[in-house]
């Protein structure tokens, strides 16, 4: 068969490309179907589309693709005996995928009505990270507050102070990254939210936290010293046992 005609992209997502084409002008036999070749990074995949020559137009979704990846696509009709000429090649990049969840590395009281949060960039993202959504919620309530800040994938860590909170409340805080679609203008691809971290606000909490950390460090030091002296005592007992034999 001669080459399929009018190969056209109809729709693109992060993991699929939907296209259409028309049958060859010269069929040279009964069309049994089409081979759809997709090439990226020197790797070639092929999908088989079973269609008859009576179809005036063929529509097909190419699935299981990689996000934000450029594909070169061509279509060949085939009969029971031969494969025909290749269609004109189209080049299409898939859309960006969903970013993975950021990792909150620090959440501390800044004052009685504000907190400080720091998080690491998502391990998986595509093209860029355009902004973050910080979600704060008072435990036991259904409503939440979303804060949006601009971002860049070049920043490995991001920190901010969240203000105008309510004293004597326990808050849960989550963070998600977001990226603009490269296919649909202004469409937002929102990533997965981080695991929620909880913190309570009260007067002088910014002063209490260092004291708690110091107490914890002192406790750890005392435990370590105790272990060292215990080990030293065991060594002395063993040495005394062998000396008295």
UniProtKB/TrEMBL annotation:
SUPFAM superfamilies: Fibronectin type III. It comes from the Eukaryota. GO terms for cellular component: membrane. Gene3D superfamilies: Immunoglobulins. InterPro entries: FN3_dom, FN3_sf, Ig-like_fold, RTP_Phos/Ushers. Residues 3-97, 98-204 form the Fibronectin type-III domain. This is Fibronectin type-III domain-containing protein. It comes from Musca domestica (House fly).
